Each structure stands twice: as C-alpha cells, then as structure tokens.
Amino acid sequence: MRRVNEVRVGRAEIARKFVEGFAPDRRQFHQHCLALLAESKAAKEIVDQTRTKPQGTVRISCPVALLSSGIAEIISRYPHDNPQVQVLVDATNRRVDVIEEGLDFAIRVRLPPLEDTDLAVRQLGLSTLVLVASPDLAERHAAPTSIESLRDWPTLSIANNSERYIWNLVDTSGQVVSLAHQPRLATDDLASLRIAAMRGVGVAMLPRELVDADLQSGRLRRLLPDLASRPGLVHAIFPTRRGMVPAVRHLLDALVAGYENLNQKG
Q: What ranges do the domains of the chain cover?
C-alpha cells in the first residue's frame, strides 16, 4: 500500500512539473479545462439528482368509488411529501384509454382473473365490500341471521345501468349467497351512500376500508360479519415500466404501501 501511494504521489508531482513547464497561456488554458471538467461533473450530479428525486406532473385517473375508499387520502399525502410534484386526478367511472389520453396510469378494481392487456399492470391491494347499517336502523329490526332475513330491511346500493340490484356475497366456507333488492337510494358516489347509511336510510354494502373508522367508532354496525364480497383487485395500468419517471414510480409505491396499511386494518 505504501508503494502504491508513493507511485501516486510521484505521478502527481510529474504532472505538476509538466504543467509548470507550459507557457503562461498554456497553463491558463489548462486551468480552464480543469474548471470545465469540474462544472461538467457538477452538472452531471444535478441531472442524476433530478432523475432520482420525484418532480414534475403525474396524470392519473381513478373511479370515484375508489377515491372515496382511501385512495384520495393516499394521493393527497403524496404532493405534500413531495413539494416538487403536481398530481392531476381525473375522477371518473368511465373506461379510460391510458395512451390516447396521455395518462401516466389509471387505477381500476376488478374481480380476478384480470383481463389480458398489452399494458403493464401493478397490483395495489384488495378491496372487500361488507354490509353495514346505522345502530338506530339495526335496533328497529331483529338481528339478521342470514342474507334472506334482510329482505324486509330498507337498502342502499351502488347505481348500475340495468337497475337490477343484487348483492352477491361469500360466506366463510366459500359458498355464494345472493339477495335481490330494491334500494331506497342508488348512486355511484360511495360517500353519499356512507352518509345515508349512517343516517339510518338503509343497509349498504360498502368497501371495508371506507367504513372501517365508522365501525370502530360505532357510527355504523356490521351486519352478518361472516359474509363479504369476493375481494376485488385494485391495480394500476400504465404503458410500460421502461423510462418511468421517479414521480410516477414513487406514487405507485406510495399507493401500494397505503393499501397495505388499509388491508392490515381489516
């Protein structure tokens, strides 16, 4: 090691004497070259930092129901934690074209198996629907013992085009049970259904992550706790993983971590 250091010192001394042998104008030129190299290195470090630090605009789409089920909170924290990032969210229930509409990714929820697609897919978490009602409504009826015993209860539902409303749930043994019903209120806004359920308008089947705090506080009660919907896969689709900028990649990471926390609460 000592020998290596001696060689390095020797080379540095030779280089110094070689430069000192230059004419003054050549020495000045050499100093300018060293300054340019230093500036180039500094510029490269800045570029490397921008490639790893989240910044810029992220454009995404998400169904209204999912935003109400915890995703809005996760997304809102992201620009707060990353001040150089702007997040533009298209809250829509229509099926979007990620490429044609210039989106970085779209969030969806589907029952498995997922359909084949040329787009890249990243699973964010699971979403399960449960039956809930206000304590006041629950006290006005006999405690339900089966899905059929809810036939005489007022109900709420997510809206659909067919206007046929059927709850499909799975019990702990994996058996599917169903109930056709006519809701007193139907809307695709889960926040409105949650409010209506808390006010005793009817029984609602809502995402567990949306009503978890209400169940813990007693604002809502879970009915038939052995029944729940089949878990839906919450996932993001995007054109490709190659060339994904840090702002997009880190937001996806934040969504995965956020959904993991939501699922653990259940």
A: 2-42, 56-125+233-265, 129-222
